[in-house]
Amino acid sequence: MHFYIGAHETIEANIMAVFGFQLCFTLIMASFMQKLTPIYSFGRWLMCNGSLVRYKHPTDEELKKLAGKPSDKSNNKARNRRHNYSDQKNSTTFKVSKKLEITLDAQPVHVIDTIILRNYTDYEWLVNYTLFSIFVYIGTEIYYEIWHPTKEFNISMVWILLSMWFAVKNLCSVLVLYAKAKAGGEISMSITYGMFSFIVALGTLMIKEDVLEFGIEAYINDNITSTNSTVPEQRHFSISGIKLLLATCSSFLGILFAFPALRMAQMYVDALRYSKGNAFTQFLLHLNFFAPAAIALMWIKPIVRDLIRDPRIGLGRSEDVSPMLTDSQFEIMRILFIICICFLRLALLRIHLQAYLNIAYEKMMKLRKESGMITNIELQKIITRVFYYLGVVAVQYLSPLVLVMCSVMCLKTMGGYSWLAFSADYKDNVMNLTTATVQNNEASSNQLLSDSTLQDMVHTVGGNLYSIRAIFTPVLLRGVFSYIVWWSSFNWTVASSLGLLYHSYLID
Fold first, then answer.
1. What is the per-residue pLDDT across 306-357, written as a single tens digit (0 to 9) for each?
2. How far is residue 119's CA from residue 173's CA, in Å, rounded to a whole number?
3. To bridge 271 with a disulfide, which of 7, 171, 264, 355 should be the other Cys (CB 3.0-4.6 Å)?
4. What are the transmembrane regions (predicted)?
Protein backbone atom coordinates (compact mmCIF):
# COMPACT_ATOMS: atom_id res chain seq x y z
CA MET A 1 0.00 0.00 0.00
CA HIS A 2 2.81 2.39 0.89
CA PHE A 3 4.61 1.40 -2.31
CA TYR A 4 1.51 2.21 -4.37
CA ILE A 5 1.08 5.61 -2.74
CA GLY A 6 4.75 6.42 -3.22
CA ALA A 7 4.68 5.40 -6.89
CA HIS A 8 1.54 7.45 -7.47
CA GLU A 9 3.13 10.52 -5.90
CA THR A 10 6.26 10.02 -8.00
CA ILE A 11 4.28 9.87 -11.26
CA GLU A 12 2.29 12.96 -10.29
CA ALA A 13 5.48 14.82 -9.43
CA ASN A 14 7.03 13.91 -12.79
CA ILE A 15 3.99 15.14 -14.70
CA MET A 16 3.84 18.31 -12.62
CA ALA A 17 7.47 18.93 -13.54
CA VAL A 18 6.32 19.63 -17.09
CA PHE A 19 2.84 21.10 -16.73
CA GLY A 20 2.93 22.17 -13.09
CA PHE A 21 0.12 24.51 -12.13
CA GLN A 22 -1.69 24.12 -15.46
CA LEU A 23 -2.33 20.41 -15.22
CA CYS A 24 -3.43 20.64 -11.60
CA PHE A 25 -5.78 23.55 -12.32
CA THR A 26 -7.20 21.84 -15.42
CA LEU A 27 -7.97 18.62 -13.56
CA ILE A 28 -9.62 20.54 -10.73
CA MET A 29 -11.82 22.52 -13.13
CA ALA A 30 -12.75 19.39 -15.10
CA SER A 31 -13.78 17.61 -11.92
CA PHE A 32 -15.61 20.67 -10.69
CA MET A 33 -17.54 20.95 -13.95
CA GLN A 34 -18.51 17.29 -13.83
CA LYS A 35 -19.82 17.57 -10.26
CA LEU A 36 -21.46 20.99 -10.46
CA THR A 37 -23.22 20.87 -13.85
CA PRO A 38 -25.94 18.36 -12.81
CA ILE A 39 -26.67 20.49 -9.73
CA TYR A 40 -26.38 24.00 -11.14
CA SER A 41 -26.18 24.88 -14.83
CA PHE A 42 -25.56 28.44 -16.01
CA GLY A 43 -27.16 27.65 -19.37
CA ARG A 44 -30.22 26.24 -17.61
CA TRP A 45 -30.43 29.34 -15.41
CA LEU A 46 -30.26 31.68 -18.42
CA MET A 47 -33.29 30.07 -19.99
CA CYS A 48 -35.29 28.77 -17.02
CA ASN A 49 -34.97 31.42 -14.30
CA GLY A 50 -38.54 32.61 -14.89
CA SER A 51 -37.77 35.70 -16.97
CA LEU A 52 -38.77 34.05 -20.26
CA VAL A 53 -42.48 33.60 -20.94
CA ARG A 54 -43.90 31.13 -23.45
CA TYR A 55 -47.39 30.90 -24.91
CA LYS A 56 -49.48 27.74 -24.54
CA HIS A 57 -51.68 26.53 -27.34
CA PRO A 58 -55.43 26.25 -26.68
CA THR A 59 -56.76 22.78 -25.90
CA ASP A 60 -59.37 20.99 -27.98
CA GLU A 61 -62.04 21.68 -25.39
CA GLU A 62 -61.26 25.40 -25.40
CA LEU A 63 -61.40 25.53 -29.19
CA LYS A 64 -64.73 23.69 -29.27
CA LYS A 65 -66.14 26.03 -26.68
CA LEU A 66 -65.07 29.11 -28.64
CA ALA A 67 -66.34 27.63 -31.91
CA GLY A 68 -69.66 26.63 -30.39
CA LYS A 69 -69.15 22.93 -31.09
CA PRO A 70 -70.64 20.31 -28.76
CA SER A 71 -68.16 18.73 -26.39
CA ASP A 72 -67.78 14.97 -26.70
CA LYS A 73 -65.85 14.53 -23.49
CA SER A 74 -68.52 12.31 -21.99
CA ASN A 75 -68.51 9.99 -25.00
CA ASN A 76 -64.75 9.38 -25.11
CA LYS A 77 -64.88 6.05 -23.24
CA ALA A 78 -67.60 4.59 -25.46
CA ARG A 79 -65.83 5.79 -28.57
CA ASN A 80 -62.56 4.24 -27.45
CA ARG A 81 -64.29 0.88 -27.12
CA ARG A 82 -65.94 1.06 -30.56
CA HIS A 83 -63.19 2.53 -32.74
CA ASN A 84 -59.59 1.73 -33.44
CA TYR A 85 -56.70 4.19 -33.14
CA SER A 86 -57.09 5.71 -36.61
CA ASP A 87 -60.76 6.40 -35.98
CA GLN A 88 -59.87 8.09 -32.70
CA LYS A 89 -57.31 10.29 -34.47
CA ASN A 90 -59.83 11.33 -37.11
CA SER A 91 -62.52 12.01 -34.50
CA THR A 92 -60.21 14.39 -32.56
CA THR A 93 -59.51 16.47 -35.65
CA PHE A 94 -62.00 19.22 -36.37
CA LYS A 95 -62.02 22.58 -38.09
CA VAL A 96 -62.52 26.00 -36.59
CA SER A 97 -62.62 29.49 -38.05
CA LYS A 98 -59.34 31.38 -38.27
CA LYS A 99 -61.05 34.46 -36.90
CA LEU A 100 -61.77 32.98 -33.49
CA GLU A 101 -60.99 35.34 -30.60
CA ILE A 102 -58.43 33.04 -29.01
CA THR A 103 -56.55 34.20 -25.92
CA LEU A 104 -53.20 32.50 -25.45
CA ASP A 105 -52.19 31.63 -21.91
CA ALA A 106 -48.65 32.62 -20.93
CA GLN A 107 -46.44 30.96 -18.36
CA PRO A 108 -42.74 31.21 -17.41
CA VAL A 109 -40.34 28.72 -18.93
CA HIS A 110 -39.37 26.09 -16.36
CA VAL A 111 -36.81 23.32 -16.42
CA ILE A 112 -39.45 20.67 -17.04
CA ASP A 113 -40.53 22.51 -20.19
CA THR A 114 -37.09 22.16 -21.78
CA ILE A 115 -37.50 18.39 -22.19
CA ILE A 116 -39.28 18.86 -25.51
CA LEU A 117 -36.95 21.56 -26.85
CA ARG A 118 -34.93 20.76 -29.96
CA ASN A 119 -31.14 21.09 -29.53
CA TYR A 120 -31.50 22.15 -25.89
CA THR A 121 -28.72 19.82 -24.72
CA ASP A 122 -26.38 21.32 -27.31
CA TYR A 123 -27.22 24.80 -26.06
CA GLU A 124 -26.70 23.92 -22.39
CA TRP A 125 -23.45 22.09 -23.02
CA LEU A 126 -22.09 24.97 -25.13
CA VAL A 127 -22.84 27.53 -22.41
CA ASN A 128 -21.55 25.44 -19.50
CA TYR A 129 -18.39 24.26 -21.22
CA THR A 130 -17.54 27.73 -22.51
CA LEU A 131 -18.00 29.16 -19.01
CA PHE A 132 -15.56 26.68 -17.51
CA SER A 133 -13.17 27.24 -20.42
CA ILE A 134 -13.13 30.94 -19.58
CA PHE A 135 -12.37 30.12 -15.93
CA VAL A 136 -9.47 27.89 -16.99
CA TYR A 137 -8.25 30.59 -19.37
CA ILE A 138 -8.36 33.31 -16.71
CA GLY A 139 -6.51 31.16 -14.18
CA THR A 140 -3.86 30.21 -16.72
CA GLU A 141 -3.41 33.81 -17.86
CA ILE A 142 -2.83 34.93 -14.27
CA TYR A 143 -0.29 32.16 -13.88
CA TYR A 144 1.56 33.18 -17.05
CA GLU A 145 1.57 36.90 -16.23
CA ILE A 146 2.89 36.41 -12.68
CA TRP A 147 5.33 33.51 -12.96
CA HIS A 148 6.28 33.73 -16.68
CA PRO A 149 6.81 29.98 -17.19
CA THR A 150 9.07 28.88 -20.02
CA LYS A 151 8.75 25.83 -22.23
CA GLU A 152 5.23 24.98 -21.05
CA PHE A 153 2.36 24.10 -23.33
CA ASN A 154 -0.67 26.32 -22.61
CA ILE A 155 -3.40 23.80 -21.79
CA SER A 156 -6.10 26.48 -21.65
CA MET A 157 -5.84 26.76 -25.44
CA VAL A 158 -7.12 23.18 -25.69
CA TRP A 159 -10.23 24.18 -23.75
CA ILE A 160 -10.74 27.29 -25.88
CA LEU A 161 -10.25 25.46 -29.17
CA LEU A 162 -12.74 22.81 -28.08
CA SER A 163 -15.25 25.57 -27.33
CA MET A 164 -14.77 26.86 -30.87
CA TRP A 165 -15.29 23.34 -32.18
CA PHE A 166 -18.53 22.94 -30.22
CA ALA A 167 -19.79 26.28 -31.56
CA VAL A 168 -19.07 25.27 -35.16
CA LYS A 169 -20.52 21.81 -34.56
CA ASN A 170 -23.77 23.31 -33.23
CA LEU A 171 -24.10 25.57 -36.25
CA CYS A 172 -23.54 22.56 -38.51
CA SER A 173 -26.23 20.61 -36.63
CA VAL A 174 -28.69 23.48 -37.19
CA LEU A 175 -27.84 23.49 -40.89
CA VAL A 176 -28.40 19.72 -41.05
CA LEU A 177 -31.70 20.22 -39.24
CA TYR A 178 -32.91 22.54 -41.98
CA ALA A 179 -31.66 20.12 -44.62
CA LYS A 180 -33.59 17.22 -43.10
CA ALA A 181 -36.68 19.40 -42.84
CA LYS A 182 -36.38 19.99 -46.60
CA ALA A 183 -36.30 23.73 -46.07
CA GLY A 184 -34.96 24.37 -49.53
CA GLY A 185 -35.10 28.16 -49.22
CA GLU A 186 -32.81 28.30 -46.19
CA ILE A 187 -30.31 25.79 -47.58
CA SER A 188 -30.06 27.43 -51.01
CA MET A 189 -29.73 30.84 -49.37
CA SER A 190 -26.91 29.60 -47.10
CA ILE A 191 -24.99 28.01 -49.99
CA THR A 192 -25.37 31.14 -52.13
CA TYR A 193 -24.12 33.32 -49.31
CA GLY A 194 -21.21 30.94 -48.77
CA MET A 195 -20.13 31.28 -52.40
CA PHE A 196 -20.44 35.04 -52.12
CA SER A 197 -18.31 34.92 -48.95
CA PHE A 198 -15.57 32.99 -50.74
CA ILE A 199 -15.28 35.62 -53.46
CA VAL A 200 -15.34 38.51 -50.99
CA ALA A 201 -12.74 36.79 -48.79
CA LEU A 202 -10.33 36.35 -51.71
CA GLY A 203 -10.67 40.03 -52.55
CA THR A 204 -10.23 41.02 -48.92
CA LEU A 205 -7.01 39.04 -48.53
CA MET A 206 -5.55 40.93 -51.49
CA ILE A 207 -5.88 44.27 -49.72
CA LYS A 208 -2.61 45.74 -48.49
CA GLU A 209 -1.74 45.70 -44.81
CA ASP A 210 -1.62 49.49 -44.79
CA VAL A 211 -5.41 49.48 -45.14
CA LEU A 212 -6.63 46.20 -43.63
CA GLU A 213 -4.11 44.94 -41.11
CA PHE A 214 -4.13 41.24 -40.28
CA GLY A 215 -0.39 40.73 -39.87
CA ILE A 216 0.07 38.17 -42.62
CA GLU A 217 2.75 40.27 -44.31
CA ALA A 218 4.59 40.34 -40.98
CA TYR A 219 4.79 36.56 -41.25
CA ILE A 220 6.57 36.98 -44.60
CA ASN A 221 9.09 39.36 -43.00
CA ASP A 222 9.54 36.91 -40.13
CA ASN A 223 10.33 34.17 -42.64
CA ILE A 224 12.97 36.32 -44.30
CA THR A 225 14.55 37.25 -40.97
CA SER A 226 14.68 33.69 -39.69
CA THR A 227 16.09 32.43 -42.99
CA ASN A 228 18.95 34.93 -42.95
CA SER A 229 19.75 34.26 -39.29
CA THR A 230 21.84 31.52 -37.74
CA VAL A 231 18.78 29.70 -36.49
CA PRO A 232 18.40 26.20 -37.97
CA GLU A 233 16.09 26.00 -40.98
CA GLN A 234 12.40 25.95 -40.07
CA ARG A 235 9.29 24.91 -41.91
CA HIS A 236 7.26 27.78 -43.32
CA PHE A 237 3.87 27.89 -44.93
CA SER A 238 3.11 29.32 -48.33
CA ILE A 239 1.35 32.67 -48.07
CA SER A 240 -0.83 31.81 -51.06
CA GLY A 241 -1.80 28.55 -49.42
CA ILE A 242 -2.63 30.31 -46.15
CA LYS A 243 -4.84 32.84 -47.93
CA LEU A 244 -6.60 30.13 -49.94
CA LEU A 245 -7.24 28.15 -46.76
CA LEU A 246 -8.57 31.24 -45.00
CA ALA A 247 -10.86 32.00 -47.95
CA THR A 248 -12.21 28.44 -47.82
CA CYS A 249 -12.86 28.77 -44.09
CA SER A 250 -14.57 32.10 -44.80
CA SER A 251 -16.90 30.41 -47.25
CA PHE A 252 -17.71 27.73 -44.67
CA LEU A 253 -18.45 30.35 -42.02
CA GLY A 254 -20.62 32.20 -44.52
CA ILE A 255 -22.75 29.09 -44.99
CA LEU A 256 -23.09 28.66 -41.22
CA PHE A 257 -23.78 32.34 -40.46
CA ALA A 258 -26.37 33.06 -43.16
CA PHE A 259 -29.59 31.90 -41.54
CA PRO A 260 -28.60 32.62 -37.89
CA ALA A 261 -27.83 36.21 -38.90
CA LEU A 262 -31.25 36.54 -40.53
CA ARG A 263 -32.81 35.16 -37.36
CA MET A 264 -30.83 37.70 -35.34
CA ALA A 265 -32.19 40.52 -37.52
CA GLN A 266 -35.76 39.37 -36.95
CA MET A 267 -35.28 39.20 -33.17
CA TYR A 268 -33.66 42.64 -33.23
CA VAL A 269 -36.62 44.20 -35.06
CA ASP A 270 -39.12 42.50 -32.76
CA ALA A 271 -37.18 43.42 -29.61
CA LEU A 272 -37.13 47.09 -30.65
CA ARG A 273 -40.88 47.03 -31.16
CA TYR A 274 -41.53 45.49 -27.75
CA SER A 275 -39.15 47.89 -25.95
CA LYS A 276 -40.77 51.11 -27.13
CA GLY A 277 -40.67 53.69 -24.36
CA ASN A 278 -37.47 52.25 -22.84
CA ALA A 279 -34.70 54.35 -24.33
CA PHE A 280 -31.88 52.59 -22.48
CA THR A 281 -32.93 49.12 -23.65
CA GLN A 282 -33.29 50.32 -27.21
CA PHE A 283 -29.82 51.88 -27.04
CA LEU A 284 -28.35 48.57 -25.88
CA LEU A 285 -30.19 46.72 -28.65
CA HIS A 286 -28.81 49.11 -31.27
CA LEU A 287 -25.33 48.80 -29.80
CA ASN A 288 -25.57 45.01 -29.72
CA PHE A 289 -26.76 44.76 -33.32
CA PHE A 290 -24.12 47.08 -34.80
CA ALA A 291 -21.27 45.95 -32.50
CA PRO A 292 -19.88 43.43 -35.05
CA ALA A 293 -19.50 46.32 -37.50
CA ALA A 294 -17.49 48.21 -34.88
CA ILE A 295 -15.29 45.14 -34.36
CA ALA A 296 -14.68 44.90 -38.11
CA LEU A 297 -13.69 48.57 -38.22
CA MET A 298 -11.03 47.96 -35.57
CA TRP A 299 -8.84 46.29 -38.19
CA ILE A 300 -9.06 49.12 -40.75
CA LYS A 301 -5.82 50.92 -40.04
CA PRO A 302 -6.53 54.43 -41.43
CA ILE A 303 -9.85 54.63 -39.57
CA VAL A 304 -8.95 53.25 -36.14
CA ARG A 305 -5.28 52.60 -35.42
CA ASP A 306 -3.95 55.76 -37.03
CA LEU A 307 -6.61 57.95 -35.39
CA ILE A 308 -6.78 56.40 -31.92
CA ARG A 309 -3.20 55.32 -31.43
CA ASP A 310 -1.36 58.36 -32.85
CA PRO A 311 -2.61 61.89 -32.01
CA ARG A 312 0.02 63.40 -34.32
CA ILE A 313 -2.33 62.85 -37.27
CA GLY A 314 -4.60 65.65 -36.09
CA LEU A 315 -1.60 67.89 -35.27
CA GLY A 316 0.20 67.66 -38.56
CA ARG A 317 2.45 64.84 -37.27
CA SER A 318 4.64 67.15 -35.22
CA GLU A 319 7.63 65.24 -33.93
CA ASP A 320 7.39 66.65 -30.39
CA VAL A 321 4.15 64.79 -29.65
CA SER A 322 4.55 61.17 -28.53
CA PRO A 323 2.07 58.47 -29.60
CA MET A 324 -0.93 58.03 -27.35
CA LEU A 325 -0.68 54.23 -27.42
CA THR A 326 1.97 51.77 -28.44
CA ASP A 327 1.14 48.99 -30.87
CA SER A 328 0.95 46.44 -28.06
CA GLN A 329 -1.32 48.65 -25.98
CA PHE A 330 -3.62 49.20 -28.95
CA GLU A 331 -3.83 45.45 -29.55
CA ILE A 332 -4.76 44.77 -25.92
CA MET A 333 -7.37 47.54 -25.95
CA ARG A 334 -8.86 46.04 -29.10
CA ILE A 335 -9.03 42.62 -27.48
CA LEU A 336 -10.68 44.04 -24.35
CA PHE A 337 -13.20 45.92 -26.49
CA ILE A 338 -14.23 42.73 -28.28
CA ILE A 339 -14.56 40.81 -25.00
CA CYS A 340 -16.82 43.56 -23.60
CA ILE A 341 -18.98 43.38 -26.72
CA CYS A 342 -19.30 39.61 -26.30
CA PHE A 343 -20.49 40.01 -22.70
CA LEU A 344 -22.99 42.63 -23.85
CA ARG A 345 -24.45 40.20 -26.37
CA LEU A 346 -24.69 37.55 -23.67
CA ALA A 347 -26.48 39.97 -21.33
CA LEU A 348 -29.12 40.67 -24.01
CA LEU A 349 -29.74 36.99 -24.75
CA ARG A 350 -33.04 36.76 -22.88
CA ILE A 351 -34.44 39.92 -24.48
CA HIS A 352 -33.89 38.41 -27.92
CA LEU A 353 -35.24 35.02 -26.91
CA GLN A 354 -38.37 36.64 -25.50
CA ALA A 355 -38.80 38.53 -28.76
CA TYR A 356 -38.65 35.17 -30.53
CA LEU A 357 -41.20 33.57 -28.18
CA ASN A 358 -43.58 36.44 -28.85
CA ILE A 359 -43.77 35.25 -32.46
CA ALA A 360 -46.43 32.79 -31.30
CA TYR A 361 -48.69 35.67 -30.29
CA GLU A 362 -47.91 37.54 -33.52
CA LYS A 363 -48.82 34.51 -35.59
CA MET A 364 -52.10 34.18 -33.73
CA MET A 365 -52.93 37.85 -34.42
CA LYS A 366 -52.00 37.43 -38.07
CA LEU A 367 -54.18 34.33 -38.33
CA ARG A 368 -57.22 36.29 -37.20
CA LYS A 369 -56.89 38.55 -40.26
CA GLU A 370 -57.25 35.58 -42.62
CA SER A 371 -60.49 34.01 -43.76
CA GLY A 372 -61.35 30.34 -43.94
CA MET A 373 -61.06 27.35 -41.67
CA ILE A 374 -58.14 25.61 -39.99
CA THR A 375 -57.94 22.32 -38.14
CA ASN A 376 -57.28 22.27 -34.43
CA ILE A 377 -54.07 20.28 -34.95
CA GLU A 378 -52.63 22.84 -37.38
CA LEU A 379 -53.55 25.73 -35.12
CA GLN A 380 -51.93 24.10 -32.12
CA LYS A 381 -48.78 23.33 -34.12
CA ILE A 382 -48.44 26.99 -35.09
CA ILE A 383 -48.19 27.92 -31.42
CA THR A 384 -46.22 24.92 -30.19
CA ARG A 385 -43.60 25.01 -32.94
CA VAL A 386 -42.32 28.41 -31.76
CA PHE A 387 -41.40 27.14 -28.31
CA TYR A 388 -40.18 23.80 -29.70
CA TYR A 389 -37.37 25.55 -31.60
CA LEU A 390 -36.30 27.82 -28.73
CA GLY A 391 -33.14 25.74 -28.20
CA VAL A 392 -32.23 26.06 -31.88
CA VAL A 393 -32.62 29.83 -31.76
CA ALA A 394 -30.47 30.02 -28.62
CA VAL A 395 -27.75 28.01 -30.37
CA GLN A 396 -27.94 30.32 -33.38
CA TYR A 397 -27.53 33.35 -31.15
CA LEU A 398 -24.72 32.04 -28.93
CA SER A 399 -22.54 29.99 -31.32
CA PRO A 400 -21.17 32.99 -33.29
CA LEU A 401 -20.64 34.78 -29.97
CA VAL A 402 -18.60 31.86 -28.58
CA LEU A 403 -16.63 31.61 -31.82
CA VAL A 404 -15.63 35.29 -31.73
CA MET A 405 -14.80 35.32 -28.01
CA CYS A 406 -12.67 32.18 -28.18
CA SER A 407 -10.92 33.43 -31.32
CA VAL A 408 -9.92 36.68 -29.65
CA MET A 409 -8.63 34.73 -26.64
CA CYS A 410 -6.51 32.61 -28.97
CA LEU A 411 -5.33 35.81 -30.64
CA LYS A 412 -4.15 37.19 -27.33
CA THR A 413 -2.42 34.05 -26.05
CA MET A 414 -1.11 32.37 -29.21
CA GLY A 415 -0.21 35.75 -30.68
CA GLY A 416 2.15 36.46 -27.82
CA TYR A 417 0.39 39.54 -26.41
CA SER A 418 0.53 40.41 -22.73
CA TRP A 419 -1.92 42.03 -20.35
CA LEU A 420 1.05 43.95 -18.95
CA ALA A 421 1.41 45.96 -22.16
CA PHE A 422 0.49 49.18 -20.32
CA SER A 423 3.48 48.91 -17.98
CA ALA A 424 6.31 51.34 -18.70
CA ASP A 425 9.02 48.70 -19.17
CA TYR A 426 7.03 46.34 -21.43
CA LYS A 427 8.50 45.44 -24.82
CA ASP A 428 6.85 43.33 -27.48
CA ASN A 429 9.43 40.65 -28.39
CA VAL A 430 7.19 38.51 -30.56
CA MET A 431 9.74 38.53 -33.37
CA ASN A 432 12.23 36.85 -31.05
CA LEU A 433 9.86 34.18 -29.74
CA THR A 434 10.34 31.85 -32.70
CA THR A 435 14.13 32.13 -32.58
CA ALA A 436 14.19 31.51 -28.84
CA THR A 437 11.86 28.55 -29.17
CA VAL A 438 13.99 26.85 -31.79
CA GLN A 439 17.19 27.49 -29.87
CA ASN A 440 15.69 26.11 -26.67
CA ASN A 441 14.44 23.04 -28.50
CA GLU A 442 17.86 22.41 -30.01
CA ALA A 443 19.55 22.85 -26.66
CA SER A 444 17.13 20.65 -24.76
CA SER A 445 16.41 17.95 -27.32
CA ASN A 446 17.19 14.64 -25.69
CA GLN A 447 16.53 11.31 -27.32
CA LEU A 448 14.78 8.69 -25.28
CA LEU A 449 17.01 5.75 -24.46
CA SER A 450 16.19 2.31 -23.12
CA ASP A 451 17.12 3.39 -19.61
CA SER A 452 15.24 6.70 -19.76
CA THR A 453 13.13 7.46 -16.74
CA LEU A 454 9.50 8.47 -16.72
CA GLN A 455 10.56 12.01 -15.97
CA ASP A 456 12.72 12.08 -19.12
CA MET A 457 9.81 10.79 -21.18
CA VAL A 458 7.37 13.35 -19.84
CA HIS A 459 9.96 16.10 -20.30
CA THR A 460 10.49 15.09 -23.93
CA VAL A 461 6.75 15.01 -24.64
CA GLY A 462 6.33 18.45 -23.11
CA GLY A 463 9.21 19.79 -25.18
CA ASN A 464 7.67 18.40 -28.36
CA LEU A 465 4.36 20.07 -27.58
CA TYR A 466 6.13 23.35 -26.94
CA SER A 467 8.14 23.01 -30.17
CA ILE A 468 4.92 23.45 -32.15
CA ARG A 469 5.57 27.17 -31.72
CA ALA A 470 8.52 26.77 -34.08
CA ILE A 471 6.05 25.91 -36.88
CA PHE A 472 2.93 27.81 -35.86
CA THR A 473 4.78 30.97 -34.88
CA PRO A 474 3.09 33.75 -32.88
CA VAL A 475 3.40 36.01 -35.93
CA LEU A 476 1.49 33.52 -38.07
CA LEU A 477 -1.15 32.92 -35.41
CA ARG A 478 -1.64 36.66 -34.99
CA GLY A 479 -2.50 36.96 -38.65
CA VAL A 480 -4.75 33.89 -38.71
CA PHE A 481 -6.81 34.66 -35.61
CA SER A 482 -6.99 38.37 -36.44
CA TYR A 483 -8.54 37.42 -39.73
CA ILE A 484 -10.94 34.93 -38.11
CA VAL A 485 -12.18 37.54 -35.63
CA TRP A 486 -12.48 40.19 -38.32
CA TRP A 487 -14.19 37.94 -40.83
CA SER A 488 -16.66 36.54 -38.31
CA SER A 489 -17.68 40.06 -37.35
CA PHE A 490 -17.75 41.36 -40.92
CA ASN A 491 -19.67 38.35 -42.21
CA TRP A 492 -22.20 38.59 -39.39
CA THR A 493 -22.62 42.33 -40.06
CA VAL A 494 -23.34 41.85 -43.76
CA ALA A 495 -25.73 38.91 -43.26
CA SER A 496 -27.66 40.55 -40.41
CA SER A 497 -27.89 43.82 -42.36
CA LEU A 498 -29.42 41.97 -45.28
CA GLY A 499 -31.83 40.36 -42.84
CA LEU A 500 -32.67 43.76 -41.38
CA LEU A 501 -33.53 45.11 -44.83
CA TYR A 502 -35.66 42.05 -45.51
CA HIS A 503 -37.64 42.17 -42.27
CA SER A 504 -38.01 45.95 -42.30
CA TYR A 505 -38.98 46.64 -45.90
CA LEU A 506 -39.82 43.45 -47.78
CA ILE A 507 -42.32 41.90 -45.36
CA ASP A 508 -45.02 43.33 -43.17
1. 887 666 655 555 455 567 788 888 999 999 999 999 999 999 999 999 999 9
2. 9
3. 355
4. 13-32, 125-144, 156-178, 190-207, 242-262, 283-300, 332-359, 386-411, 484-502
